[in-house]
């Protein structure tokens, strides 16, 4: 298009003529308004790109702040085991197998899980609690995807919570498993943390979980806790006194 101080009528006469015809049709006010003249319209501007981080990056950064790295960076890989979904001829408590058996078509293979050696970042895994209450029903798929993208950082079982906590494996999460009462409350999360003596946790929620009190408040204060708020309407008010690290998840963008 030429240099920044070049004339448009010389550099691109066709474009210049099109723009001139458009500008000429604009009504002219008594006093000139910036942007209504051709010289104002055709000016060069410098725009600073602002790339949008993915939710995978947002969560990964939060996990890195929480993970117990034993004096290391947390990215040094160590050998560990992760549950992997397999098909086996041995009977297993698989929902699909149970349904097929009930209708008289027992399957030859059943879905099960097998620990598989893998290399993961050094340090203790983070327990993840995913809000599956009715208020964020439309975001559950995106939240599941973000958690699975960061599976190397998290405990092998993810904790779904509404007014109770239900533990699901990563394989079950990938299949879309969800058990909810549609309500929500932080008391069940605090009780789960206390019962399992969890030291590091991330909660994915819109924040409307009620303020913890009494022993629940004390439990949450003793945990190294990060909260990832869901896109849209969310609040920090209920958990502000017990949260060590905050982050904000972003709306998924269509490709």
Structure description:
- This protein is α/β, with parallel strands linked by helices and 255 residues long.
- It has three domains: 8-41, no CATH class; 55-76 and 122-248, Rossmann fold; 81-120, no CATH class.
- Helix content is 29%, strand content 22%.
- The protein contains nine helices and eight strands.
- It has helices at 8-11, 13-24, 38-41, 55-66, 95-102, 140-149, 170-174, 186-196, 214-222; strands at residues 77-88, 110-121, 127-131, 157-161, 165-169, 200-205, 224-229, 245-248.
- The protein has a six-stranded mixed sheet, with helices on both faces. It has a two-stranded antiparallel ribbon with strand order 1-2.
- The protein is extended.
- It starts with 7 loop residues before the first helix and ends in a 7-residue tail after the last strand.
- The relative contact order is 0.13.
């Amino acid at each position: 298009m030429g240099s920044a101080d070049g004339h448009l009528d010389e550099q691109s006469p066709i474009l210049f003529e099109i723009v001139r015809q458009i500008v000429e049709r604009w009504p002219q006010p008594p006093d000139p308004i910036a942007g209504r003249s051709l010289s104002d319209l055709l000016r060069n501007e410098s725009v600073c790109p602002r790339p949008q981080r993915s939710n995978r990056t947002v969560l990964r950064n939060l996990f890195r702040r929480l993970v117990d790295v034993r004096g290391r960076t947390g990215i040094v890989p160590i050998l560990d085991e992760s549950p992997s979904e397999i098909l086996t001829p041995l009977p297993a408590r698989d929902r699909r197998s149970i349904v097929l058996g009930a209708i008289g078509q027992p399957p030859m293979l059943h879905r099960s899980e097998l620990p598989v050696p893998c290399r993961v970042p050094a340090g203790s895994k983070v327990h993840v609690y995913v809000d599956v209450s009715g208020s964020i029903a439309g975001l559950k798929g995106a939240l599941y995807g973000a958690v699975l993208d960061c599976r190397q950082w998290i405990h092998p079982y993810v904790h779904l919570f509404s007014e109770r906590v239900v533990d699901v494996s990563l394989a079950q999460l990938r299949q879309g498993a969800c058990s909810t009462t549609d309500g929500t409350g932080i008391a069940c999360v605090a009780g789960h943390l206390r019962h399992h003596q969890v030291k590091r946790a991330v909660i994915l929620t819109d924040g409307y979980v009620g303020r913890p009190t009494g022993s629940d408040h004390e439990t949450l204060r003793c945990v190294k806790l990060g909260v990832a708020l869901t896109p849209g309407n969310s609040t920090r008010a209920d958990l502000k006194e017990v949260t060590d690290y905050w982050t904000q998840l972003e709306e998924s963008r269509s490709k």
